[in-house]
Structure formats: structure tokens, C-alpha cells
Amino acid sequence: MVDDLLRSEGLPRHILPLSFGPVYYQTGLVLGGQVISLKNDKEQWVVESVDPFGIGSELGIAPGDIPLVIDGLPADQYLSSFKESDWIRVVRQITVVNPNGTILDADSSLTQPASSATIDLIMWLLPCLAFWVVGIYVYLRNPKNEASVLLLACSLVFGLALSSNLASDRLAPLALHITVIASTIGPWLLLHFFLILPEERAWLRHRPHQYLVYVLPALIVIAYPFIGQSNGQPLPDFRTFRLIGYGVGFLGVIGVVVFNLLRAADSRTRHQMVIILLGCMAALLPFLIFSVFPGVQDDGVFLQSNITVAFLSFIPLSLGYAVIARQLMNIDVVVRRGVVYGLITLLMAAVLAGVFALVLSSGVAPGFAQQFILALFLSAIAVLLLGPARSATEALVDKFFYKDRHDYQQIIQSLSASLSATASVEVASSLIIDAPMTAMNLSGACLFVATDETSFVFAAARGIYADRSFELELMDFVKRRTPSTEYPNVVGSKDVAYMIPLTAAGKTVGVLFLSGKASRQEFSNSDHFLIRSLTSVAAVSLRGLLIAERDIFERRKNDQAILIAKQEWESTFDSIPDLICIMDKDHNIIRVNRSMADKTGMLPAEAVGKKCYQIMHDTCVLPGFCPGLGDRNRCGLGDEIVQGDNTYQVNITPIKIGGKSSGRYVHIARDITAVKKAEAEQQRLKEKAELSSRLAAVGEMAAGIAHEINNPLTGVLGFSELLLARSDLAPEVADDLKVIADGSRRVAEIVKRMLTFAHQTKPLKSRVDITELIDNTLELRAYVLKTSGIEVVKKYSENLPWIIVDPGQMQQVILNLIVNAEYAIKHTGNPGKLTITAALEARYLRLIFADSGPGIDNVTITKIFQPFFTTKNPGEGTGLGLALSRSIVEEHGGTLEVASSPRCGAAFTILLPIVQISVSAAENRDSSVNNLEHQSAAVILVIDDEECIRNLAVESLSGEDRHVDTAASAAQALILLSKKDYDIIVMDLRLPGTSGMALYAEIIDRRPEMAGRIVIITGDTLGEDVKMFLETHRLPSLVKPFEPAALATAVAQTLCDVKRRI
Q1: Is 94:70 a contact under the CB 8 Å cutoff?
Q2: What residues pair up with 835 in beta bridges, in sequence order?
Q3: Residue-level pLDDT at 279
Q4: Angle at alpha carbon of residue 390, lines to 386 and 394, rounded to 5°
Q5: Is 260 exposed, middle or buried (0-12, 13-18, 19+ CB in 10 A)?
Q6: pLDDT tens profile 896-909
Q7: Disulfide engineering: 108 pairs with which of 32, 602, 697, 779, CB 3.0-4.6 Å?
Q8: In this predicted model, what pLDDT tens digit does every residue of 802-820 receive, in sequence order?
Q9: Which residues carry this modification: 4-aspartylphosphate (predicted)?
């Protein structure tokens, strides 16, 4: 408000009230920038108060004076328009009269400001300047610390405030506001971050609740901008609030000091807190005196000198800093330094006095030039002698007056020399803990060494720590905290006095634990000196040893890794089955792997230096087919070289180092003989698979054709057999019919073999005389055998039993063996012999087919039963005959083997199991077949869509007491079955309309008793549905074409079986 008035009137502001914030008045006059407060007392205006350093105060204006004239007007007239409160006016002149009648006239244009005001301005700016200097000093010592940055920022603001006051008095109130903040929060920051010992700060960092002490001063600082002025209106309670801030700041300092005094673990910290507390009390004493004795106050006004409060905050802080940093209150330190510097002064004075005495003894007064040279000489002597003199003096003083410190220095020097002479961390660890143990007579010492930035390992221990039970406890202390310097009893253990991290180059290389003294004495200043000096030396030496040891370990590790990599490379190089060699551009071998050495029959070392073609191709010149060496990335890409029976794929690759050719090449020869053979075999199998596919297609076509052939062929064969059975035929007709019957049989067998070849079906077994089957097969090849000059010798044992086989399939096996024998003998170019032996061997029938051909070599004999393997020329064989023959024999429960040797022929042996059939049953069946006319009357139904087959069945089965009905379809059959009962039904499975399988189900559903009375005849046994039907119902069946006798036999056997069941 005063500022606004001054600016509105254009008046200079020469001086400000002495305060650390704006001072506001509710009523009064402003004269020359100073306020004269007035009040209306009993209808009379009188002076209430006067600024003590203003113009009015200089002229003697005092409270109680009566104003007479104001700016040339009578006071009553001038003041008549004002109320008693809430007014203020800037004036240029005022005249008053005091109670003594003296008239005083004050004119701002004629009167200069009081000189004491300038001195007061400097006095209140001194705290700002002091805080500014301290902030800069703290920041320079530790620029990375957050508190130092904050202090520097505050100090810069104070500097700006100071500059503003020196440049223009209009900006001075800013400095007043900031000084309030400084006196409130500054002491707290200084005390916490600067005056407290570093080890105490580390301890406080682990107790975050300590920072709660900043809550109250922080609230004051935050609220300060809102106190003192609101929208330009004055607040009269501002001074009270400001005093509260000062009190909080000061009492906060006292509180922190008392807290650390009670909680500090180090005696040094407690001692320093006592000194600070005493200093604060001494500084506060004058303020307390002025407050307690009102008589010394000016007119009862309470002493509110803000500058006193500011100094009360900074005086104990400065005192505490001096005590802590310079140990001014430590008598031992002060006396020792005094003695040292006193002796140095005397020594230097004696030297200088001696020099002056020497100069003056010449009797000639030196001139200016001589004096200047003498001064330079004496300065040089002083500089040169100061360091050595100080060291020598300190050593002498310590030796005679501070023996413990002197002895400790010797221990440190000895330890440093010992650590420098050792290269072992283990030995160094023992030396580090032995030094304090011996010097201070400790109960125990232990050292942990850092393996990395966060991990430590137990290194050495003495005394009570030698018990390894302490190891885990101490390790837990190390993991939980690692302060930056020694901190007494930081772990809160009665067995640990100091836990000292050994720090060098900003990294912790170890942690040293020290117990208390065995004598239970307190640690002295000399002991602290030893501990600090020892930890510094130990940290530096231990760091160097750890770095050296880690370097050695890394080198050994790298050497071991290189050795392992070399061994792995050599093992890999030698284990590769390919033939590998490394050679230069002249084909000189530098190295070969084990495979190449084994291939060449020499040791790897023996191949070195030789030409690659000398050991690989046994030649003295480079073969023309060998790939050349060039500058290409790869040369000889996959070239194939045949050497003997083997084929090699050769690759030659240049070896590049750093992207440039090294003049060396890797020669890799891979044996691809097996791959080539496999490719050839694969190609052969592919061709045979294609052949097999074509044969399968032929087989499918043959199966379709055979089905169509079987039906008419059945009629031709059947009726020719019936005609031959007549006795009234002329011989020439009988011969012709026999030719027709034989031809029909051959056609039937050919069709059957085609079907067997196309699909390996389960055999349709029947009782067979094996010798008759062999003879019939030989008849088929009789002409070829005779024209080829092959003699057939039969060696059949007598009384050979019948066997149960599929006649057609077994004949195919016999025929294949005969044809192979023909081929083998024919290619000898000479007549030969085929010997066929049939003999009984235990429960087996042995058949041997031995030829006089060239025989089979050992390699071929292992493959002859493989599908598609053949020794015949292309187009002469498929390689399926023997494979199919073995499959047929094994399907019958037998075996097919071969025995042979070169030039001794081959012998194929078949073993077939003998199935015993009772003689009575066989005789009964033969009797049933041969005497069918003596059977009881039977009614037979034949169902087939082929008329010739129906007629053949009627002719074959009809008799005196037997009646045969026929049906061409399932519908006709069902009609007949509904009218008549039948003993036997002979039916085809392939019928127009309803199939035979569906008809069978219908018959069994209507006439269940017909089960077991049905005989199946079919020309299609290859269909999956037909095979499944026959296997499921186990019905007797005949495959077309069949002879009349076979049909009669099947019917007779079925009738016999029916009678046995009845």
C-alpha cells in the first residue's frame, strides 16, 4: 500500500522499514517514504507512532505531538475529511508542536534520509549474502547432490535480491520475502545435508520417517506467498505469522540436534550435537533477556528485531560447522596443530633470521635490487622448506606427544608396503585384518571381498569372527546396507563396533567388520585416525589386487576357452566323415582330417606338405579332372570324381579372413557312392513300380475278362465231360471231346493264374494228390522241355498222403520253378537235367526241384525272393514269379527255400504241412460221390442266370431219385421255395436284380433250416464283398469253370454233412 502511494506521487523511496517483509499501517501520513501514524484522541489529532529511522524521527517528532500544518493547510482542515481508520496520505510537509510548545517543521524536499538507514540495509542483507556463499560452497563440493542444487538455487535468488537492492530500492521488498524463507527452511537443509556427518546421513537414509521433520517448515514456505497481502489489501497479522516461521525454523534446528544427540551411536556425533546445542542456547540468551525484562524495551514495544532472529539461526550453524569440519573444540587436535605450526613458525623464523643476519653481517646495506632478489630467495626457501618442515615437525610431535598416532602411522606404512609386495587377495585380506587386530587389541576382525558390484564373499577372519557361525549373520548385514564410510554399530549388534565399506574409485571392493577392544575401552581419536587411514590404504590395494586377479582369471578363462574351442574344432574336424584337407594355392596340404588320413593310409602329420593329388590320386601331376583353384568364392562346385568303385563329390572353398583371401582352400570330398547306388536303386524301383502298375492294370482287365469267360467256359468243360462219360461214342469223337475238355481245362487254369497274379486271394483249398499235380504241370511244359534237351527225373516216394491245398495256386508255384529251371539250363548251352523229388518228412511233404544250371552266386541268392528282382534279360521276366511263389507257399503254412552255389545248379525246396483226414470220412465221401445214385431221394434247386450252367447242373445232378429244379433269377427261386421244400440249393452270387447274397439272407430268413444246405458257385472270387460273404458264412463253394464231377462232389459232401448233423 505504501509502495503504491509512493509510486502514485512520484516520490523516491530512500529507505525502508527494517523488517524481513512488508510492513503495513492502517492510518497515517507518508513523509519522504516514512510513515507517521496519527490517531484522533478526544476530538484532537495526535501523533501515535513514528518510524524510528525516518525524517520525522530525525527532527524529534514523537508520539503525543499535535499536528498544526500539513502541506500548507491547517491540520484540522486537512484531516477533517478523513475517518479515524483505514486511511493513509502521502504528504510533502508537516508542522507539529510538542507538549513543551516547541514547533517542529519537516519538509521531505529539504531533508535527506538518515545515514543509519543505509547501515541497517546492509545489516539485513548480510544473512542473504552468507547463505549465498554457503550455497555456492556446498554445490562446488558436491554438484551431483540434490540438496546442494537446491541450496545453490536459493542462493542465486538471494544474490538477485541483493543486486536489486543495490540497483534500485523499489525492488527491495522481494529480498525481504525471500529472507523469511531462508531463515525458515535454510537451517534445516544445512543441518541435514551439510553439517551432519556423512555416516549419520547414510544412517538417516535408511529411516525415511526422518524427513517428516520438514513438513512444518515446508507448509510455512508454501503458505508464505498468501500471507501479508491479499488483492492489494494489507493484513495486520503478517508480523505474527512471520515470527511463527522464524520460531519454527529455529526450534526445528534445536529439535533435530536433540534427536541426533539422543540417537547417535558415535561418540563424536554426540559431542558435536552438544556443542551446537550450547551454541544455540548462547545465541538465544540475549533475545530471552530482552523478552523477560520489559524495562529495557522501547516504550513497551516488544523487541521484534528480525535481524537478531536471523543471526540466531546462522550463528549455531556456523559454530557447528567449524567444530565438525575443523575440530576447533577438540583440545587434542587444537594443541597438536598449535604445536606443529608454532614449531614450523620458529623454524622458518630462525632460517630467515639467519639469512638476514648473514646479509647484515657484511656491513653493506642492500639496495632495492638486492632486497628484491633476497625476497625472492627467501620466498623460495620458505616454499621449499614448508612441506618437509611440516612433515618432519608433525612426525616429531606425534612421536613424543602422540605416540599412538605415530605408531599407527608406522603400521599404515608397513601395511602399505606389505600390500604392495603381495599379489594374492587371500594374503592381502589377512594383512588387512591383522593390522587393526594387533594395533588396537580388538576382539575380532572380518573381511568380505566383492566379487562384483552387489555380491561379496567371505575372505578372512580373526578372533571371535573366526567362528564361521558369524559368517551368515555378517553377510546378511552386508546385503542389507553398505554405507559409504564407516558407521559405528550400524548393524545394531553387540559384537560389531564398525562396519566399514572399503571404497576405491567410487566402487565398494570389500566390507571390513571390527569388534570392540578386548579391554572394552572406547575408541580414541588416534584409533579413528588408524581406521580411516587403514581403510583408505586397504581399499586402494585391494582394488588393484582384485583387478589383477580378475584379469588373470579372465586371461586363464580365455585361454581355457581358446583351448576348448581348439579341441572342439579339432574333434569336429576329425569326426566329419567327409575327406577334408586344407591346402594352399599350390595344392600343398596344410592339414587333413582323420577320414582323409584313414583313406590314404597315413597319419595326419605325414600328409602335411605333400601335394593333395599325390595322396588322393597317387600321381605326380595334377589330374585333368581335378577342379582348379581360383579367386572365386567357391570353385569346384559339386564336381563328381569316380575313383575305383567309389564316387566322390568335391567342393573347394577359399578361406577368407576379414573379407580377403588368405591363399588357403578347404578341399572337401564326400563319398556319395551309397547315394548314387540308392538313386540307381530308387530309379530301378520306380521303373518296376511303373511296371507293377501296368501289370496291375492288366490284372484288373484280366479279372474282368476272366469273369466273363468263366461262365461259358463252365458249360463247354462240363458238357464235354458229360459227353466223354457216355459209352456209345465213337473213338474218334471221344478223342475230339477229350481235346475239347483238355483245352477247356487249360483255358480255365490260364484264367485262374491270371486272377491269382492280379490279386493274391486266399486259396480255395481241396484235397490234392501232389504227384498227380506235378505230372499234370509237367504235361503243360512237356514240349518245351523236350525241345530244350532237358531230361526230367521223377523221384516220388510210395504211399504219399494227400494234401489240402489250392490246386491252381500250387500248380502255379510248380510251374514257376519248372520254368526257372528251363531258363537256367537253356542258358548253359548244353542239355540238362531237372530232378523232381517228392518225399514224406515227419508231418511235412518235401518237394525238391533241382536243376543242372549254372547256379546262383552268393549276392544274387539273397535277393531272388525280392519283388521285381530278376536275373533275366529285359523283357524276359518281371521278377514276380519267385516272390509270388513264396507268398503262396507261406499262405499254405509251408516254406520255400533255395540252395545253390556257382556252377553247381540250384535246388528249390518246398515244405508243405500234411492235414490228416480220417480214412472213414474220406471213404464215406468217396462213397457218397461215387454212389450218388444210392443216396436217398433229394430235391435240388439250382439258381444261375446262365442257361448253360443250369442245364449242366441238371445233367450232372439228376438221377432216378433225385430231382433238379432251376431258376434264372432270385424272384423265380423265391417262388419255387414257397411251393416246394428243397434238400440242397446250388446258387450263383451274381444274379440279375436281387444279388445272390441278398437272396441267401432272404432264404435263411424264410427257411432257417436251409442253413448249411446251400452250395455257392461263382465266377467272381476277387470282389471284396464276395470274399467277405464266403468268409462270414463259411459256405461250400465252387469257382467257375468247374467240372460236373466237382459239382456232384460238392453236393454229395453237403448232403453227407447234413445227414451227420441230423
Answers
A1: yes
A2: 793, 850
A3: 57
A4: 175
A5: buried
A6: 999 887 778 889 99
A7: 32
A8: 888 888 788 888 988 888 8
A9: 988
C-alpha cell at 1021: 472270387
φ and ψ at 290, to 5 degrees? -65, -30
Own/partner pairs, 345-352, CB within 8 angstroms, 24+ separation? 347/385, 347/389, 347/393, 348/382, 348/385, 348/386, 348/389, 351/381, 351/382, 351/385, 352/378, 352/381, 352/382
Q: What dihedral angle (degrees, nearest 10) is formed by the CA atoms of 133, 485, 503, 429?
A: 160
Q: Where would I find the beta strands (DSSP E) of 901-1023? A: 906-913, 938-943, 962-967, 984-988, 1014-1018
Share of the chain above pLDDT 90, in %: 4
Residues contacting 539, CB < 8 A, separation 6+: 502, 503, 504, 509, 510
Burial class (CB in 10 A: 0-12, 13-18, 19+), 1007: middle
Q: Is residue 346 over pLDDT 50?
A: yes
**Which of 58, 62, 25, 29 is CA-nearest to residue 47?**
62
Q: Which one-letter amino acid corresponds to residue 976? A: L
296-305, long-range: CB < 8 A, 24+ apart: 299/63, 304/239, 304/243, 305/18
CA distance linking residue 886 with residue 810, whole number of Å:
11
Domains present along the chain, CATH in parentheses: 2-113 (2.30.42), 127-325 (no CATH), 332-401 (no CATH), 403-552 (3.30.450.40), 576-670 (3.30.450.20), 683-913 (3.30.565.10), 919-1061 (3.40.50.2300)
Look up residue 325 and give its three cell numbers: 569440519
> Mean pLDDT of all residues in the chain?
71
Q: How many C-beta atoms lie closer than 10 Å to residue 196's C-beta?
A: 23
How many other C-beta atoms are found inside a 10 Å radius of the C-beta of residue 307?
A: 18
Which amino acid would we find at residue 42? K
Task: Return the bridge partners of 640, or none.
Answer: 649
CA distance from start to end of the chain: 143
Question: In Å, how far are 456, 562, 620 from 551, measured between CA atoms?
Answer: 18, 16, 53
Residue entry with cell 528485531 = 305
3-state SS, one letter per residue, for 808-868: HHHHHHHHHHHHHHHHHHHCCCCCEEEEEEEEEECCEEEEEEEECCCCCCHHHHCCCCCCC
pLDDT-based confidence at residue 162 (cuts at 50, 70, 90): very low
Which string of DSSP letters, residue by residue, matches 630-692?
-SSSSEEEEEEEEETTEEEEEEEEEEEETTEEEEEEEEEEEE-HHHHHHHHHHHHHHHHHHHH
**Residue 158 burial by CB count (10 A; 0-12/13-18/19+): exposed, middle or buried?**
buried
What type of residue sits at position 108? S
Share of the chain above pLDDT 70, in %: 58
Selection from 977, 511, 990, 461 nearest residue 714 by Cα:
990
Sheet with 962-967: list strands edge to edge. 962-967, 938-943, 984-988, 1014-1018, 1037-1039
Q: Tell me the average pLDDT across 259-281.
A: 65
Largest Cα–Cα separation, the chain:
199
Nearest in space to 393 (alpha carbons), one of 406, 378, 410: 406
- pTM listed for this prediction: 0.34
The pLDDT of residue 739: 82
Q: Fill in the amino acid letter for 777.
A: T
Question: Is the distance from CB of 431 to CB of 541 less than 8 angstroms?
Answer: no
pLDDT-wise least confident of 310-314, 400-404, 894-898: 310-314
Which grid cell is 493? 549388534
